[in-house]
Structures are given as structure tokens and as C-alpha cells.
């Protein structure tokens, strides 16, 4: 069973940048469509970005032009580069395969001055 460990979150000022990482165990990571999700306090978890096994990407409108999803299949790692961060990006960020399997702990991103 594949497991995910997210890292790279933190406190950043509006307009700042963060790079999230998601380390996946298991040897079949490269076969999965992968996604980054986020859950803000009091809100449902939402899909932010996806990437296919071949590198095709798609984003929710609110992050287009600011976030970039990428993957390194040799390292079993998924990334999310987040630029021009806004307070409304504050959330716990998770990675998961599609369809979803077990969730990791997530990593907290807080955008505040």
C-alpha cells in the first residue's frame, strides 16, 4: 500500500512562496495520477492541482498562474511550487493519488502578515 508524507509548509507573508513536497512509498508511484488537495478551517477538502503519469497538469482557477505541480518519478516525489501566496491559500495541504487512497498527515500552510 502506498503511503504519502507531505512536507514544506510554514508561515509566509502574502506574496511569498513555498515549495511543498510529497514523498510516496511504494514502487508504482509513477503509474498514478496524483493531486494536491487543501482543506481550510471549516471548509471541505478541495482539489487544487493534478498531474498525470506523463506530466499533463491541470489547476483549479483560483491557483492558475501561481501554483505549479510537478513530479519526479525516479524519486517517488510530488511537488507543488506556490508563488504569489494569498491569505486565502491558508490551509492544510495534502497529496493523494486519484482515485484516493489513504491520506497522509498533510502540511500546514499559513499566509499572513
Task: Describe this structure as you would to a colleague.
0% of the residues lie in helices and 49% in strands. It has no helices and ten strands. The strands form two sheets. A six-stranded mixed sheet has the order 2-10-9-4-5-6, with no helix packed on it. A hairpin with an 8-residue loop joins strand 9 and strand 10.
Strand order in the sheet with the most strands? 2-10-9-4-5-6
Global geometry: globular
Poorly predicted regions are none
Q: What percent of residues are in strands?
A: over 45%
Q: What is the total tally of β strands?
A: 10
**Largest sheet descriptor:** 6 strands, mixed
Task: Report the mean per-residue pLDDT as an integer.
Answer: 95
The helical percent reads: under 10%
Instruction: Note the total helix count.
Output: 0
Q: In whole angstroms, how far apart are the ends? A: 40 Å
Strand/helix succession: EEEEEEEEEE
What gyration radius follows from the Cα positions, in whole Å? 13 Å
Q: What is the SS-derived class?
A: mainly beta
Amino acid at each position: 500500500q502506498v503511503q504519502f508524507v507531505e512536507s514544506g509548509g510554514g508561515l509566509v507573508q502574502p506574496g511569498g512562496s513555498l515549495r511543498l513536497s510529497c514523498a510516496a512509498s511504494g514502487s508504482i508511484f509513477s503509474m498514478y495520477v496524483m493531486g494536491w488537495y487543501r482543506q481550510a478551517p471549516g471548509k471541505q477538502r478541495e482539489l487544487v492541482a493534478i498531474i498525470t503519469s506523463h506530466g499533463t497538469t491541470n489547476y483549479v482557477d483560483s491557483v492558475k498562474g501561481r501554483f505549479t505541480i510537478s513530479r519526479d518519478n525516479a524519486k517517488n516525489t510530488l511537488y507543488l511550487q506556490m508563488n504569489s501566496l494569498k491569505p486565502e491559500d491558508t490551509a492544510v495541504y495534502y497529496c493523494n493519488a486519484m482515485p484516493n487512497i489513504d491520506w497522509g498527515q498533510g502540511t500546514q500552510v499559513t499566509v499572513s502578515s
